[in-house]
Amino acid sequence: MLFVFLAAVAFGTFFGGPVGDRIGRKKVIWGSIVGALPFAVLLPHTPLWAAVCLSIIVGLILSSAFSAIVVYAQELMPQKVGMVAGFVFGFAFGIGALGAAALGALADQIGMQQVFSFLSILLCLGFLTVFLPDIE
């Protein structure tokens, strides 16, 4: 399942950049959050075959915003492009590693099903992107 999800993430990241160039980075970020939310909420409540399909869909949609986020951040600070890219990548992977360890410990305490149900709700934090400034 992890391989399926990460393969979908790779494709979503690759295709998110050109889409962001066409329709705008902020729209891609919003589409990624709003588009992945219903599928992520359904994911813990489906049988295995449907979970594979939903993992692919969520991976594609959610990761499509990653390249748009990097370029958006670089546009906010055009004089520090390298620093911004390094910060975004470092912060994303660092928080991901800390989150994986914390969620593993939480799963040991309350169970995987409850953790997966909780994780889909975390996507609602993405609605904080409403506070992102307009660049255009």
Please characterize this protein's 3D structure.
The chain has helices spanning 2-23, 25-42, 48-76, 81-110, 112-122. The protein is an all-alpha fold. It has five helices and no strands. The model has no long low-confidence stretch (mean pLDDT 89).
Average pLDDT works out at 89
Question: Main sheet?
Answer: none
pLDDT < 50 runs, ≥5 residues: none
What general form does the structure show? Answer: globular
Quote the beta fraction: under 5%
What's the arrangement of secondary structure elements?
Elements: H1 2-23, H2 25-42, H3 48-76, H4 81-110, H5 112-122
Helix pairs in contact: 1-2, 1-3, 2-3, 2-5, 3-4, 4-5
Notable characteristics:
globular; mainly alpha; single chain; 136 residues
In a nutshell, what does this entry contain?
With about 140 residues, this protein is mainly α. It is about 80% helix and about 0% strand.
